[in-house]
Amino acid sequence: MQLYTHKIPTTTITKNNLLLVIFLGLLSCNHKKTDKEDPNTYTSNKAEIINLDFDTINKANSFDYPVGKPNAKGYYNAQNFTENNHLSEDWNAIEGGNSDLGAPIYSIANGYVSFAENVNGGWGNIIRIIHYIDKNNQVESLYAHCTKINVKKGNYIEKGEKIGTIGNNSGQYLAHLHFEIRNKVGLPIGKGYSTSTKGYLNPTDFIKMNR
Ligand SMILES: [Zn+2]
Fold first, then answer.
1. How far is the CA of 16 from the centre of ligand 1 (A)?
2. What is the pLDDT confidence band of residue 10, given thresholds at 50, 70 and 90?
3. What is the per-residue pLDDT for 186?
4. Fewer Cβ within 10 Å of end Cβ, the chain: N or C?
5. Which whole-number Å values give the CA distances from 100 to 2, 54, 208, in the listed order?
6. How far does residue 52's CA lie from ligand 1's centre (Å)?
7. Model-level pTM?
C-alpha cells in the first residue's frame, strides 16, 4: 500500500506577508457560501420525452407548498421569483444555514414524475413532476439540489407525498430547495436564472391561487 504524505512548507512570516495573509482571509470571508446559486455554473439542456396517460393520472385539484407541509410552516423564501432574474423560489428553514439539510420535500399536488436524476453542475439532484389540471392545462414543478430522491421517473404520486429531501448540492450551497413552477411542460432544465420568464410562474402566487 502506498502512503501519501503531505509536506507542510515552512515559511518565515514577515510583517508584510502577515498583512497579506490577513487581507486574503478577509477577502475569502466575502466569498462565504450563501443559499443562492451561481448562475454561471447552473445550466443543463437535458430535455425529456413525456407520454402522459391522461386516463390514468390523478388530476391536480389543489396545490400545497413543497416544504413545511402544507403551508410552509417553519420555512421562508430567501430569493423570490424574478429577484436577480431567478426563475424559482429558494426555500429555507427559518433557523437558516444547513438546518434544513435532509428535511422532507413534498409534491405540491397529484402528479406524474417525469424526471428524477442527478444532472451535476450547479443543479445536482432534480425532481420534475407534471400536474394535470385538464387536457389543456398542465403545470410542472421542479425541485433541485436534493440530498435524496425518493421517487422514480414514471411514478404517479399524490399531493403531500414525500419525494425527496432538501440538500446543498454536495456542499456547493447552504441547504435550500430551489423550487420552480412552469406553465410549459417539458422545457429543458435550463439555467434557473433568466431575464425571460416565459414558461415560468411565480410559485407562491400560483399556490395561493390554487389551494
Ligand atoms: Zn434558486
1. 41
2. very low
3. 85
4. N
5. 40, 36, 23
6. 28
7. 0.79
